[in-house]
Design brief:
- It is a single chain.
- The N and C termini lie far apart (61 Å).
- The protein folds into 3 domains: 2-45 and 52-67, no CATH class; 82-236, no CATH class; 255-358, no CATH class.
- A hairpin with a 4-residue loop joins strand 5 (97-101) and strand 6 (106-112).
- Helix 5 crosses helix 6.
- 28% of the residues are buried.
- It has a 7-stranded mixed β-sheet.
- By secondary structure, it is an alpha+beta fold.
- The protein has helices spanning 14-22, 70-73, 116-119, 153-163, 182-199, 217-236, 291-302, 325-333, 339-342, 351-358, and strands spanning 2-4, 25-37, 55-67, 84-88, 97-101, 106-112, 129-135, 144-150, 169-175, 203-204, 255-259, 262-269, 272-275, 281-282, 306-308, 313-316, 320-322.
- Helix content is 27%, strand content 27%.
C-alpha cells in the first residue's frame, strides 16, 4: 500500500498508518518521490497565488504488508497447518539437525554437545544468531537454560563449550538469507529471556536481563514475526521453556483437587496438566516427598510461581503446566499421590475413570 508521508486532510499521516498496520502485519517500507493529480488544478489563468498546477510533487510512503504469525490471530479451530522439515545432517537422530519451516527464511540448528567440536566449522555456525543452551537439573524436573546471541554463533558456543558444564544441547536460530544483524539478534535475545522468565518453566542461568535494543518500528515488527515462527519450532524439538498455557478457545473438562485444606482447579493439556491460577497449595511437605518433587516446589517458590497466601498456603500467580497430573498434585499438596485418582470432576468422577471411559475400557 502507499500513503502520503505527511499529515493529510483526513487526519492520518504515513506514520499513523504505519503504526496501525504494525499491530496486524509484518512491515517492509520505502520512501519515494512522486507526483499526483489534483484533478486539473486551477492553472495560472486566475492570476493570483491561489492557483495550483494539475500535477503536484509528493513524498510517498510505501508499505509492504505481510500477515503476522497465524498462531496469534486465529482461534484453535481456525489454525492452518504448516510444514516443518528436520534434516539429520549426520544421518542419525542423535547428531546435528537442521530445522526449516514452510514460507520462512529462518534456519534452526540443533547441536548435541558431544558433536560440537566436529561440526562447528560448518557455515551455519559462522552466521549471526540467537541461541539456547539446555541441560537437565540434577535435583528437579525443571531444566537449566542459558539464552544468548552472537555474531558469529560459533565463537560464543566455543566459550560455553569450555566454561559451562550444565548444557547438553545447543539450539540456535539464524537466517538463511543472512538478513539478521546484531540489533536483530539482540532483540531476539531480549524477548526470549523475557519469555523464559515469564513462563517459569526453567532455571535461567542468565545473570542479567539483556536490554531492549533500539529498532525502527518496521524492523521491530519484522523481528517479532521471526520470533513467532521460531517459537513454533521449539516445541517440536522438545523445548517447552517458553510455553505458557494458552487461553483455550474450546471447552475443557475442569477437574478439582481438594485435600489438606486446598482447593485447586486444572485440566489435561497436550503436554501434561495445567493448574489454574486461583488454586491453592500447602506450604508444608511430608518427609516422604521425593527429592525431585521437593526441588520442583523450591523452583516454583524461587521463581515467584508459588506466592505465599498466608502461613499455611501458597497460591499460583499464573496458570502453570506440569508434566503430569501426579506431578501437579504432588506439588500442590506436598505429598506423593496418584493424580489420576485425586483430580475429579464436580460430580466426583476421577480423571482415571474419565480416561478409561474415553479408552473404551468401561461400558
Amino acid at each position: 500500500m502507499t500513503f502520503p508521508d505527511h499529515d493529510c486532510s483526513n487526519g492520518l499521516s504515513g506514520n499513523s498508518v504505519r503504526e496501525i498496520a504494525a499491530r496486524h502485519f509484518c512491515i517492509r517500507e520505502r520512501h519515494v518521490e512522486s507526483k499526483f493529480s489534483t484533478l486539473g488544478g486551477t492553472g495560472d489563468e486566475r492570476g493570483d497565488e491561489s492557483g495550483r498546477s494539475a500535477r503536484q510533487h509528493a513524498h510517498e510512503l510505501m508499505l509492504v504488508l505481510e500477515p503476522k504469525c497465524q498462531m496469534q490471530t486465529t482461534t484453535e479451530t481456525q489454525r492452518r497447518g504448516y510444514s516443518i522439515r528436520i534434516f539429520l545432517a549426520e544421518g542419525t537422530p542423535s547428531g546435528l539437525k537442521f530445522v526449516e519451516k514452510s514460507n520462512w527464511s529462518g534456519l534452526g540448528v540443533v547441536c548435541p554437545r558431544p558433536r560440537f567440536s566436529a561440526v562447528k566449522d560448518r557455515r551455519e555456525f559462522a552466521r549471526a544468531g540467537v541461541y539456547v543452551l539446555l541441560g537437565p537439573s540434577a535435583s528437579s524436573d525443571v531444566p537449566i537454560a542459558y539464552i544468548g546471541e552472537a555474531d558469529p554463533v560459533r565463537s560464543r558456543l566455543e566459550q560455553h563449550h569450555s566454561l559451562k558444564d550444565f548444557w547438553t544441547v545447543a539450539y540456535f536460530f539464524t537466517s538463511k538469507d543472512t538478513n539478521l544483524n546484531k540489533a536483530h539478534i539482540e532483540y531476539l535475545e531480549h524477548r526470549l529471556v523475557a519469555l523464559g522468565k515469564e513462563a517459569k518453566r526453567c532455571k535461567l542461568e542468565n545473570a542479567n536481563a539483556p536490554g531492549k535494543p533500539s529498532l525502527s518500528e518496521a524492523d521491530e515488527a519484522d523481528v517479532e514475526c521471526f520470533l513467532d515462527e521460531l517459537l513454533l519450532c521449539f516445541p517440536l524439538l522438545g523445548v517447552t521453556i517458553f510455553e505458557k498455557p494458552e487461553a483455550k478457545q474450546y471447552s475443557v473438562q475442569i477437574l478439582w483437587l481438594k485435600n489438606k485444606g486446598i482447593i485447586a482447579q486444572g485440566y489435561e493439556s497436550e503436554d501434561g496438566f495445567v493448574v489454574k491460577r486461583g488454586s491453592t497449595a500447602v506450604r508444608a511437605v511430608v518427609e516422604s516427598l521425593p527429592g525431585h518433587a521437593i526441588a520442583l516446589r523450591c523452583e516454583l517458590e524461587n521463581s515467584g510461581m508459588f506466592k505465599p497466601k498466608d502461613e499455611s498456603f501458597y497460591e499460583p500467580t499464573q496458570d502453570y503446566e506440569f508434566s503430569s497430573p501426579s506431578t501437579a498434585a504432588a506439588a500442590l499438596i506436598g505429598a506423593n499421590i496418584n493424580g489420576r485418582d485425586w483430580w475429579k470432576t464436580s460430580d466426583g468422577t476421577t480423571l482415571k475413570q474419565l480416561q478409561e471411559k474415553v479408552g473404551g475400557m468401561t461400558g
